[in-house]
Amino acid sequence: MSFEILTSTIEVTESLATIGSNLNIAKSTLCAVGAVGEAVNPFVPLIGTVTLVISEIIKVYETVQYNKKICDSLMDRVNAAEAAIKTLKRRQTENEKNFRNQEYYKSFIRFIEIMKRIKNFIADVSNLHGYQKFVHSGSVKGKFDSLAKDFDIVMTELHFTMAVANEEQRKIDQSALESDIADMTKFLERIGGDIIDQNQKINIVLHEVSLMKEKLSHSNSDKNIKAKKIKSTELNDPLKSKMTDRRGKNSQIIKKIYKNFEVACKPIDLLNGDPKEAAKIQGQLAILGKLRESLNIIRFYGLSNTESSDVMVFEWAEYGSLKELYCKYDIAWHVKVQIALDICRGLAFLHSCDILHHDIRCEHIMMTTRLVPKIAKFKYSRMTTGPTTDMKGLTDVMRWMAPEKLRDSTYSADSTESTKKRVHVPYTFKCEIFSFGMLLWELVFEKIPYEKWDILKIKDHVLAGNREKITWGKAPPDVEKLQQGLAKIIVSAWKSDPAVRASLQNIFINLDHLVDEYCTPDKEFANQLLPDKELDLDGSRVVSISDEGGLELPDMDMDFNLDEIPQIIPLEEGIAAHRKGEHSKAWECFLAHADLDNSTAKYWKGYYLWEGIKVEKDRKQACELFKEAADDEIADAQLRYAFSLVNNPPVKFDREIFLKYLTKAADNKNSTAQFNLGEIYLNGKLGKKDEKLGKKYLRLAALNNQPKAKEVLQKLGINVYIDI
């Protein structure tokens, strides 16, 4: 885990610098209005301010955790406001009369205040701390309706065009309010005492953690924020020793007894490092100690010393990690879904503290004797020689990493070879949700994602929009229903676009529903752990799911079995198959993409129909397809359509149409068309003799490496690089 204290400060500073740059641009743009007159001067700082506020709203929106539909409705208005401001800056002369109007000026100030209120409302309603301001759900609706009404009025006063002040938008708003408020109410009812107490108040520990994080974020942070110190005499050996009392690399993790609790003592080096870093780690561990309020986060008791080593003292997890558990046993389905829900509950607690784990996977979930999962392996609870914060140094984590973080190694589009620099993508709540989705897949199928795949293959696969396969073995009807529910949750979590990725709140509600539906009282007496390999999880115990590769993401509205979704290979792959002589594969690809109205695919479908490749010849239909593609400016189709008019009995030859499409193809840099058009004009074929124009097209063809054009020009003694 990385507590994102210093790093988040840097990211905010960078974002404000960007906003400041945008503000300067806005001001410089408006200062150019001197030619229009002095009327705009009072509006220069106002427009600069509202530009800054809009940028801040966008930044806040990127961190939304709860009530996203409500926030989306307000963002529709923010986008409308942003477009209106851009229009105002562009049409300064037309607005000079408004700039001289006092009431217009007052309305603009109200506009700024309303935008600030929208920013604050989004910030409050999208996280648990802020949501507590709204004691009753009715106050959320009242606040939203008030903001929407005031916004619509001021937009009208400023003569700004609105695409959101209509009946359809109001229906969307009401639906968003009803849906989000219902989800939030259910979430708060079911999340448990770790986050919400019996009086529906936020656990005070969350506030304490926030304050501690804020103090630690300053360079002169409070040096008194330290982890609890446990006397070494308070740590005792177990009454009965076992082989499993020592774990980890070189058996460095030792089992002890602390106040009648079994604990794990893990070595840490705080003395030999940088004093500032040591103080920072002390602060982070102090926060980690506060997190023990959650039943699903590993309990950290404090620092101590044993066997001549400084150690961190954690609660003991008898089964080890969740990965170790599923490698040793098959986990019963009713236990899996409960484990998933409890991990989600622990993540919700972390996120409520504005803490991100950064490396969530089964190996980092510890399991107690009662099979209660505990989120562990936080950054500063790893071994002294543990990894740095550079996530790209951890090859394993890429199996669970969100696509936006995988792209972190790409470069900015406008950079040159000499000025390339990596585009930094911050780790967000949405990244963690993706990783949680991969953890769920790992738990369900009891294997690590993309097993036996190298890192480059994983990266290419995920960035292409593909994921692990979800296939099922034979199971009773109730298990099948549970599996389908889990599949939908997993797929919703690993969407490529973070903006449409499921929220942790929605994932929790869906998992909670599955637990209610499937974990019935009779399951209490069922076996929780089964012999390894007893369950047929994927339908085949021989073929690895990962070896088979992944599937395109299905549409979430479908009641799906992922194996039943027909795949359409990319058009480029179909063209490559054609060139390899894999004509059946290519034909199916061209047929599918042509049905989706892809012009290039229509050309290839026409070519196969023309030549009779894997299909009966149909030159009339081929001609029609060539024309459709040609009219969409596909150069090869323009050439083919032109020549499909020649010696093709079903189609009447038209010289003007032939020359029109041949010329289009030539002008679209098709070298074959350029050569043929050159020949026509040079030799006067079709009654169109124009030697100068003919030589021009032949030179163009030769410059495009058309061999026959080069041969003709060579015979004519014409240098292709010298003007005629």
TrEMBL record:
The keyword Transferase is annotated on this UniProt entry: no
Biological process terms in GO annotation: cell surface receptor signaling pathway
Transmembrane spans: none
Domain Protein kinase: from-to ranges: 239-515
Coiled-coil ranges from the UniProt annotation: 71-98
CDD domains the record matches: MLKL_NTD (cd21037)
Matches recorded under PROSITE patterns: PROTEIN_KINASE_DOM
Gene Ontology molecular function terms on file: ATP binding; protein serine/threonine kinase activity
Keyword Coiled coil: yes
Keywords assigned: Coiled coil
Pfam families: MLKL_N (PF22215), PK_Tyr_Ser-Thr (PF07714), Sel1 (PF08238)
Protein name: Protein kinase domain-containing protein
